Each structure stands twice: as structure tokens, then as C-alpha cells.
Amino acid sequence: MPVLRGTPDASTRPDRPELIDRFGRVATDLRVSLTDRCNLRCTYCMPAEGLDWLPTSEVLSDDELVRLLRVAVTELGVTDVRFTGGEPLLRRGLEDVISATAALSPRPKISMTTNGLSLAKRATTLVEAGLNRVNVSLDTLDRTRFHELTRRDRLHDVFEGMAAARAAGLDPVKINSVLLRGVNEDEAVPLLRYAVEHGYQLRFIEQMPLDPQHGWDRANMVTAAEILASLKTEFELTPEPAARGGAPAERWLVDGGPAVVGVIASVTRPFCAACDRTRLTADGQLRNCLFSQSETDLRAPLRAGATDQEIADLWRATMWAKAAGHGINDVGFSQPDRPMSAIGG
Ligand code: SAM
């Protein structure tokens, strides 16, 4: 299905500055993809040869990006900025983008989702620039399996990256794991044991229909229920009393705590009613949902001299048009054209 572009209709929108939608939600959490490129080739995310990368001229420059971040934070009430990709550590000038974001007022919380490969070298400078939190993606603890799954023999770099992140003061270091049938579905318990032993906070994410090969199969995905059943064979899990808010993960105390484990059940237990996210792709396209079939182009107006006010209004209109839910479980659901790596996971 082609991506729909244009300015969404906001004629019924109340005149309020923040990013409200028709269902009473307010978006305060901005996910920013810094690049669509990655240095891993996880089989469920990217083909071995990579994808057709965005031409450099289409990717927002640092100045363009920081201007949009300023509009988001100072005009639209965004309080949390998460940098992702592709692999955000591949973005030249990442530290500069982070420090410019940290200089905004009110200062947003700044986090990053990364594969961790060069985190060992960069953790300290990233923290000095203003990074507050990090999520590292890690699906297996087995070197051979990691090599097969990511098509790169770099497991050791991920371990070192996580240790460096914690040594640099990032706390908690979160681990994101996707379990795949017949690949690593047997690793729920070892991954949690590893996370607990090292003081990292683990979250399992259900696989979503966002792969470029369009190979996702509901019947074959490892569900949250299966993951929890597997964990309960080894650990006592009790629901965490703290309110979940807009957080995607349902969390459990592990063996009475303080360790916790999260499960993000986007498919089997969607949390769209509490979604507080807005998304910007590396080429300056705004999305109100991971699964949106439409995008609003901010790059063209930005480059044509739009005012901050005009950009803010486009952003507001885009979020006003956000659907009630992602629709994965609806008859007739169709996957967005952009894969996860090009939207920003
Ligand atoms: N390169 C960074 C990283 O590895 O964390 C950021 C981008 S990556 C796309 C972000 C996260 O999305 C990773 O944890 C990855 O496992 C997850 N992911 C990729 N495809 C997915 C899918 N179809 N369903 C659920 N999670 C997915």
C-alpha cells in the first residue's frame, strides 16, 4: 500500500498546544530515528544485503533535526526523547545532537535504543553529552546463535557495551529481547538469569509485523503468555504494584524483587489506549503510530522556510489524526511499507 502523505484534517481539533488526539491521549514521548542504516543484519529485521538506504540528501541534517526537536519540546510538550534507528550509534555527530537536545528547556529526558556494538567506546562521551538511559537489544547469549541471528560475530561487543554503559552511570541498563520460534525461544530463562545476575533490566518484546520480508506469521510468533509460562518454570513472578502509565511493558517482580522483568505484548495485549508516542523518521517524516499507513512530511516545509508555528501545527494535526489502535488484530490489517529499521524501533 502506498504511503499517504498530506496534511491531516484538524478542523475539529480544540486549540491546545500539546499533541492531543481524538481519543484523549497526549503524546509526550518522541521516538527519533537517526539513520535507517545498521551494522547488524538481524534475520527478522533486515535482509543480509541490507536495504536501499536513504540518500544522504534526504536525511535531516543535525541542524534540521535539532530545530524539530526544539519545536517538539518547547512548543508541543514533548518531555522524553528516544534516539533510535537503524543503529543510532552510526549517526555522525550523535553526541552533538544529544547535547543540543539536553540544552533545550525544559530539558527532556534523553534515551537511546541501540545494538550496543560500539557502546564500550562511546558510553562515557554519550553520558557527558546528556544521555540519561539506554536500551540494548540482545536476543541471545550464545555466540554461535548470535552470529546466525545477526549475521555478525559481535556478541562480545554487546556484552562490553552494556558493561560500559553501566560503568558510565546509565541506570538501569535495559535489555530488549525478541524471541523467535525455533531460533531462541528457549532463552527466556537464561536471558532473565543473566540480566538479574548483572543488574540489567530485561524486557521481552513480542515480534510485530514490521519486517521488510513481510514474513511475520501470527501463528508462529512467541507470545507473551508463552514467555511468562517459560519464566515461571524458574522464577516467581509477581505483578509490579507501580502504575504502568503509558509504558509499553507490563512488569513483574522477579523472586520478590528488586529485579523486575517486562513483557511488551504489542500483539496479544495491545496498549494503544495508553500510547503517548509520536515518531520522526530519519528523513523527516512524522508518524503517529508504528503501524500508520500515512506520514506527514516535515522535511519539505522545513527546507522551504516554514515557521516553527507552521511546523508545530502540522505536528498537531498529524497526532490529532492518530487511530485508536494499531489494528494488527483487525481483519484487513496491512503492514506499513516502511520496516521497523526505517521507522525507528
Ligand atoms: N539498532 C537499534 C537496536 O538494535 O536496538 C535500534 C533499532 S532496532 C529496529 C530496535 C528494536 O526493534 C530492537 O530491539 C529489535 O530487536 C526490535 N525489532 C526489530 N524488528 C522487530 C519486530 N518485527 N518486532 C518487534 N521488535 C522488533
Automatic annotation (TrEMBL):
Catalytically driven reaction(s): GTP + AH2 + S-adenosyl-L-methionine = (8S)-3',8-cyclo-7,8-dihydroguanosine 5'-triphosphate + 5'-deoxyadenosine + L-methionine + A + H(+)
Cofactor binding description: Binds 2 [4Fe-4S] clusters. Binds 1 [4Fe-4S] cluster coordinated with 3 cysteines and an exchangeable S-adenosyl-L-methionine and 1 [4Fe-4S] cluster coordinated with 3 cysteines and the GTP-derived substrate.
A molecular function GO annotation: S-adenosyl-L-methionine binding
Protein biosynthesis is among the record's keywords: no
Enzyme class: lyase
Top-level lineage group: Bacteria
Keyword Nucleotide-binding: yes
Alphabetized UniProt keyword annotations: 4Fe-4S, GTP-binding, Iron, Iron-sulfur, Lyase, Metal-binding, Molybdenum cofactor biosynthesis, Nucleotide-binding, S-adenosyl-L-methionine
Taxon lineage: Bacteria, Bacillati, Actinomycetota, Actinomycetes, Pseudonocardiales
Name of the molecule in the record: GTP 3',8-cyclase
Subunit-level organization: Monomer and homodimer.
Pfam families xref list: Mob_synth_C, Radical_SAM
Record: residues binding [4Fe-4S] cluster 1: C38, C42, C45
UniProt gene name: moaA
Binding site for [4Fe-4S] cluster 2: C272, C275, C289
CC cofactor: [4Fe-4S] cluster
Radical SAM core domain segment(s): 22-248
SUPFAM superfamilies: Radical SAM enzymes
Database matches in SMART domains: Elp3
